[in-house]
Design brief:
CATH class: Alpha Beta
Strand content: 15-25%
Structural class: alpha/beta
CATH superfamily: NAD(P)-binding Rossmann-like Domain
Helix content: 25-40%
Largest sheet: 7 strands, parallel
Length: 304
Amino acid sequence: MGTTAAISTVWVTGAGGLIGNYLVRTAPGFARHWQAIGIIRDGNMPSPLTSPGGVRYRLLDLADFQVVRVAFKADRPQLLIHCAALSRSPACQENPSLARTLNVEVTARLAELADDIPLIFFSSDLVFDGRQGNYDESAQPDPLSVYAQTKVAAEQIVLANPRHSVVRISLNGGTSPTGDRGFNEEMRRAWQAGRMLNLFTDEFRCPLAAVVTARAIWELAAQNKPGLYHLAGSERFSRWQIGQLIAARWPQLNPRIEPSSRNDYVGQPRPADTSLNCAKIQRLLSFSLPGLSEWLKANSNETF
């Protein structure tokens, strides 16, 4: 007679965002031995509060640490996946204090609560200055923005615990609850408003569909091999090339794009090439990380 694997609880912060939402949505399929509790900060709380797949939600302000501590002790998660952040770089530049509170202090407090369990923290390819490209995990960060600086500071806190992991990601796309978290959604909204997008031909990233990111994170969690990982698409694209791929997906919007250069940009410094080498995490995965064009071709019926 077979035995049934025990169901463990996992907290997923930022469940109202892009990747956090995909993590809780895919848990019933990719992580059947986990009961996901999605932590949401604002009022975009799903109804009902428990989905058919068993996902539950909590409305929590992660900066209210006393409330968070009580909720954490009540739920007793065996894994914490921390996606929540102030992730828009201009907002971080405008309010560095808030960026540090939400991206560093909150992470530090969650790492304390999760001291004796695995924690997976999402960081960014933007921790690099972009002069080299194809960065692997041995490369030294050199952040150019407030957002990237807060991510580097949070990484150091997380990696101080040998049970904990940092996963650096690139641009992620998909369908978010608010309709504006994926890079593809931002482009689509601009075209729906009739705006022209000026896209750099000399800034490079490795975009990935958020559903693929979620699958990879669940596989990483199942293996419980903590450390530092890079997770991104297998194709390196300029902003201009990414725009062309998404524009081809939405001809009915009459998408308008125009090539431009980082040299003409006025504002905070932008890394030129933050493409990631993902060989380390690829060795642990049961599937090959696709490039964006490959994924779009294979998922032509998906809204993206």
